[in-house]
Structure formats: C-alpha cells, structure tokens
Write a structure and sequence with these properties.
It holds the Pfam family eIF2_C. It is an enzyme of class 3 (hydrolase). It is a single chain. Helix content is 16%, strand content 32%. It is an alpha+beta fold. The chain has a seven-stranded mixed beta sheet, sandwiched between helices. A six-stranded antiparallel barrel has the order 15-18-17-16-19-20. The relative contact order is 0.15. The structure holds guanosine-5'-triphosphate. Guanosine-5'-triphosphate binds next to helix 2.
C-alpha cells in the first residue's frame, strides 16, 4: 500500500515558490494497493496509457495516423500548421477496444479505437451487433517530427517510448534518410516492439505496393524490426486502421511496470504550470555551473483529459505544480527529471561511456547513393548528447578504443546505465553517429 501526503516543511527550501503560492485546500490522501495493481487493472487502464512512438521520415503520415486512430490532432502550434510539419513532440491518447461478440464480430473489425475520454465499456457500433466492447489497451502516441533538422527532438521522444509505429510512405523509395535514422535511434533505446505501417497505399497500384513491401523487408533485415509486421494502410482514408489496432493489441506486450519504487518523471514538454533536477542552472565568475533544484507541491495530475487521483508508471502524465510559470514556459524544463523530494538521481557534468560507432552515416542523402562512413570521435570535438529526454552539448575530453569521456555543456540528472546517443554536426545538422551506448561511470 503506498500512501503519502507531503507536509509543507518538506518543500521549505523551494527556490521559486513561497508558502503563499501553495493552494490552501488540503490535498486528499489517496490509498492505493500497489501490490495488486497492474497496467491492465481497471483503474489504471481506464485513465493511463503506455507510450507508443510514431517514427519515420518527414511527411510519411505520422500525425495523420495518430489522428486516424485517436481522433485527436497532434499538430497544435500555429507555426506547425503554417509549415505543415511537426516541430515539437506531439501527443495524443487513444483507447483501443475489442468487441465481446466473438462469433458475430470478426477480426480485425472487432478492434476499434476512440479518444481517451471514451467510457470503458461502450456498445459496438457495427450495424446489428450492439454487444459491449472491452477496453484492451490505452496508448499515448508520442508523435516525432520527421524533418532531418529535428533529430534531437525525435531522440527526446525516443526516451519515453515503450514501442513504436514506423511509418513508411509507399509512394517514395524505401528507405528514406530519417526512416533509417529513426529506426537506428529506437534500436539504441532497445525498443524491440515495432509495427511497420506502409502508408499512402491509396496512391499505389497493388503490384507497386507489393514491390515496395519487399523493399521494406530488405531494409529491415538484420535490424530490430526484422520480424515486425508490415501493415498496408491509408492514414488519410482511415483504411485498415482496425488491423493496426489489432497489431497494437496482439504484437506489443504490456510493458513491465514498477509500482513500488519512488516516482520519477522524465519531462518532455513543459508549459507555464510545475523536486525538479537539475533545476535552475547558473554560472559563477569562474565558469562553474551551479544547479538549484525546484521544489513544488503537485496540485493536479492528468493523462490528457482524464483527471488522475494517482499516477502510475506509463504514458504521458501532466503534472500541475505551483512553480513560477516563467521557469516552465516554452518547454524550458525539457530534459529535467521530476520526483519525490530526496529520491532523484545525481546530477552529472561528465560522462564516461562505452560506445559503438555506427558503420555508416544515416539520415543524409548522398549523391551516389552510397552512405558515408562514420569517422572516429576526435578529442575536443563537440557533439550533441541525448540522455533520457535531456539534450545538451558535449565536448569529447578523451577517446580510447570504445571508451569516451565527455564533458556536458549543461548538467544532466541521470543514472549510471542510462542509454545515451551521440550526434555529430554534419552539413549544418546533427546526425546520429553512435549506437548502443551506455555510460557506466561519471563525475558529478
Ligand atoms: N494520399 C495520402 N496522403 C496522406 C496519407 N497520410 C498522410 N498523407 C498526407 O501526407 C502529408 C504529410 O502527413 P503528416 O501526417 O503531416 O506527416 P508526418 O509524418 O506527421 O510529417 P512530419 O511530422 O512533419 O514529419 C499530409 O499532406 C497528409 O495529408 C495517406 O494515407 N494517403
């Protein structure tokens, strides 16, 4: 049973808040029997999803498929609408149901998806059925930008994915640069549950679609997606969405969750409202960085439109706090970590990592179709480092065979063994150069 009601004194060294900022009402104590809780427990699945990444090359239909499954549009910013591309991580939740009329409602039509505020046991909408449907999955789509200059944002999203949908448009040769690069990124994150969606089949003849499917199979051979199903869809016409729902239910196992450890949230978006570490960072006259964690009381918890009384691991959760909005506005807290006071991992400024360079440069088109070889890391070289959802610069202090020591431009709150990706600046953009990286020792 977990039970916790923080006292004001636990937050007394708040850097941004004073006592008056806290809401005056008493927070109710929530009692939860964590020993019997699973991701499929009614009170969990009804409110909280697990995270499904949407990855793939620019304009291959990632946002459109999210809309087709969830009925929620993830493109939410004016400048994204104007340029018709995803720039920030998008998100939308969906509930997937299966009709309980096993005989009269054949697959895959018995699988349906709706917005996440749908009741848990609605009637089947198939004409003449009228049976109840059972809520079988609740997913949170993390919609990644596919543009080649937004790889760092994609890597931030990859840090929270449990599995991924790889979108590949059928009307372009496979693979396109970010098809390869995104697949490599989720491989580094050790995601091994992937469903490939061959999109835009409405633009293709059947023979063309079959030949394209073969090119997809050849591309994923030897990768983590080798045995992934390839589902032909038209996201725009909502064609075959029931089959996608079925694959999400039958091919992606429910992620293992730890319901008893101290809570730790990775921040991937922050708005005006929310112990966050590293917190506020300042430099002294010698250039040394100091970090002052932020403390606040949680004033609300939501999973999209669902109000939560408690939050368990999984899916995207929005946490309302009383932190000074100017510290949270415009995603300023991306990459920081939120948890119970005193339980968060250390803050590090240097990493020692074991690494494997990618053999070939992914994510760029080379004129003669040959991919350039990735050259070794060089001492003093400046790289882009992604750890969890943190994204910062890193200078190579030393490299020795498969070991590198990297000094971070901004400190990161993380733990030993966390997955790290390193990208190098190539033709003005950051490209992934290191795969299967973990750091095993570091200086704080
Ligand atoms: N014909 C057809 N067009 C589609 C389909 N799916 C998406 N599109 C169109 O393809 C364009 C790009 O779709 P998006 O969903 O924005 O692509 P995206 O992968 O999310 O794009 P980025 O996030 O910017 O990488 C839009 O004009 C869509 O209407 C489809 O199944 N068929």
């Amino acid at each position: 049973m977990s039970r916790h009601r923080p006292s004001r004194s636990e937050y007394s060294d708040s850097s941004s808040d004073n006592e008056d900022d806290y809401p005056s009402e008493i927070t109710p104590t929530i009692e939860v029997d964590t020993s019997s809780l699973t991701p499929l427990s009614a009170q969990v699945i009804s409110k909280q999803p697990f995270c499904l990444g949407n990855i793939g090359h620019v304009a291959h239909g990632k946002s459109t498929i999210v809309k087709a499954i969830s009925s929620v549009s993830t493109v939410r910013f004016q400048h994204e609408r104007v340029r018709a591309i995803t720039i920030k991580l998008g998100y939308a939740n969906a509930k997937i149901y299966k009709c309980e009329n096993e005989v009269g409602c054949p697959r895959p039509g018995c699988y349906r998806s709706y917005r996440s505020d749908k009741e848990d046991s609605p009637r089947c909408e198939r004409s003449g059925c009228n049976s109840r449907m059972k809520l079988v999955r609740h997913v949170s789509f993390v919609d990644c930008p596919g543009h080649n200059i937004l790889m760092a944002t994609m890597l931030t999203g990859a840090a929270v994915m449990d599995a991924a949908l790889l979108l590949i448009a059928g009307n372009e040769p496979c693979p396109q640069p970010q098809t390869s690069e995104h697949l490599a990124a989720v491989e580094i994150m050790e995601l091994d549950h992937i469903i490939i969606l061959q999109n835009k089949v409405d633009l293709m003849e059947k023979a063309q679609a079959l030949a394209h499917q073969e090119s997809i199979s050849a591309f994923v051979k030897g990768t983590v997606a080798e045995s992934a199903p390839i589902v032909p869809v038209s996201a725009q016409l909502k064609h075959n969405i029931d089959a996608v729902n079925e694959y999400i239910v039958t091919r992606i196992p429910i992620p293992m969750r730890d319901f008893v450890s101290a809570p730790r949230l990775i921040i991937i978006r922050s708005f005006d409202h929310i112990e966050i570490r590293p917190g506020v960072m300042t430099k002294d006259s010698t250039g040394r960085t100091h970090c002052k964690p932020l403390f606040s009381r949680i004033v609300s918890l939501h999973a999209e439109a669902n109000t939560l009384q408690f939050a368990v691991p999984g899916g995207l959760i929005s946490v309302g706090t009383s932190i000074d909005p100017t510290l949270c506005i415009a995603d300023r807290l991306i990459g920081q970590v939120l948890g119970s006071v005193g339980t968060l991992p250390q803050i590090y400024t240097e990493l020692e990592i074991s690494l494997f360079l990618l053999q070939r440069l992914l994510g760029v088109k080379i004129a003669d179709q040959k991919q350039a070889k990735v050259t070794k890391l060089r001492q003093t070289e400046l790289l882009l480092v992604n750890i969890g959802s943190a994204c910062t610069g890193g200078r190579v202090l030393s490299v020795n065979a498969n070991l590198a020591r990297i000094q971070l431009t901004s400190p990161a709150c993380t733990k030993i063994g966390e997955k790290v990706t390193l990208s190098r600046r190539i033709e003005k953009h950051w490209r992934l150069v290191v795969g299967r990286t973990k750091f095993f020792a570091l200086d704080s």
